[in-house]
Structure formats: structure tokens, C-alpha cells
């Protein structure tokens, strides 16, 4: 099998901070999307009315949930040639945001811990390495 035929997997990490400038418009769009999903021809058409009601209540109560209900990772990559989505997960949360704060810079050290990236370097200079006896 040549290199071009060998399957490979890539983890794409994207973090965005979005400003919700019109919560009513966002919620309305999310409710329209839920209505389409739960229509007889929609992807959730066979789900129970209780599930639709729960989805509607969730997006009405929380703009972050409304946004998450509209974002579909498949849509982000479906038009990219040679790529097939193998797995995706996403979440949203309301946050306090200060674009001038130093801790909002991309690639923070905490990202490695958050994403489960192991650092192969030791922290001997900071006392994190093994001590001699």
C-alpha cells in the first residue's frame, strides 16, 4: 500500500471565543433547526416529542447550548477533499472574556494538560524531576 493509500488520523483542535451579539436571533435559529431536525423527514424525526421539548427548552435557557446545537463538526470538514470525519466532540460554555488578558493567548501551557498531551521533557530545573538519595 502506498503512502497516499495508508489511512492516517489527524486530531484538529480548534478553540473559538464567539461574542453573542443577538441572543434572540441565535435562539430563534436554533429553534428552527430543532423543528427541522424533528420533522418527519429530519434526522431526528423518529425521536419522541419529549426529546424535542427538552431540546427546545435547553436552547431557550442557554445561548451557549443554542450555539452548540447549531455547530456541526461534520459540516466543517464535509467539503474538504480526501477527509472523512472519524470522530468528533464539542462543547460550549459561557465564559468571562478579556481579550487583553495574558492568559487568553493561544497555545498556553495548560493546553497540554487539557488535551492530554504528554511532555517528554523533565522539570528538573523547577524541582519536578527525581531527587538523588
Architecture overview:
The protein has a domain at 21-91. It has 133 residues and is an all-alpha fold. It has helices spanning 23-37, 49-61, 63-70, 73-77, 110-114. The chain is 35% helix and 0% strand. The N and C termini lie far apart (52 Å). The protein has 5 helices and no strands. Helix 1 packs antiparallel against helix 2 (49-61) and helix 2 (49-61) packs across helix 3 (63-70).
Poorly predicted ranges (pLDDT <50, ≥5 residues)?
A: 120-133
In terms of DSSP E residues, the strand content is under 5%
| Helix/strand structural class | mainly alpha
Proportion in helices:
25-40%
Distance between the termini: 52 Å
Taking all Cα atoms into account, the compactness measure Rg is 21 Å
Please outline the major beta sheet: none
Q: Please tell me the overall pLDDT.
A: 79
Strand tally? 0
H/E topology pattern: HHHHH
**What oligomerization state is this entry in?**
single chain
Give structural attributes.
about 130 residues, mainly alpha, disordered C terminus, about 35% helix
Q: In a few lines, what is going on in this structure?
A:
With 133 residues, the chain is mainly alpha-helical.
Amino acid at each position: 500500500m502506498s503512502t497516499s493509500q495508508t489511512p492516517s488520523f489527524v486530531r484538529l483542535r480548534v478553540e473559538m471565543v464567539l461574542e453573542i451579539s443577538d441572543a434572540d436571533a441565535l435562539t430563534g435559529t436554533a429553534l428552527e433547526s430543532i423543528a427541522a431536525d424533528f420533522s418527519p423527514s429530519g434526522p431526528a424525526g423518529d425521536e419522541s416529542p419529549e426529546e424535542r421539548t427538552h431540546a427546545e427548552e435547553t436552547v431557550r435557557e442557554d445561548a451557549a447550548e443554542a450555539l452548540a446545537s447549531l455547530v456541526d463538526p461534520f459540516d466543517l470538514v464535509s467539503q474538504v477533499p480526501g477527509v472523512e470525519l472519524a470522530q468528533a466532540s464539542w462543547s460550549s460554555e459561557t465564559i468571562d472574556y478579556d481579550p487583553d488578558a495574558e492568559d487568553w493567548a493561544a497555545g498556553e501551557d495548560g493546553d497540554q494538560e487539557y488535551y492530554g498531551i504528554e511532555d517528554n521533557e523533565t522539570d528538573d530545573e523547577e524541582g519536578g524531576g527525581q531527587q538523588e538519595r
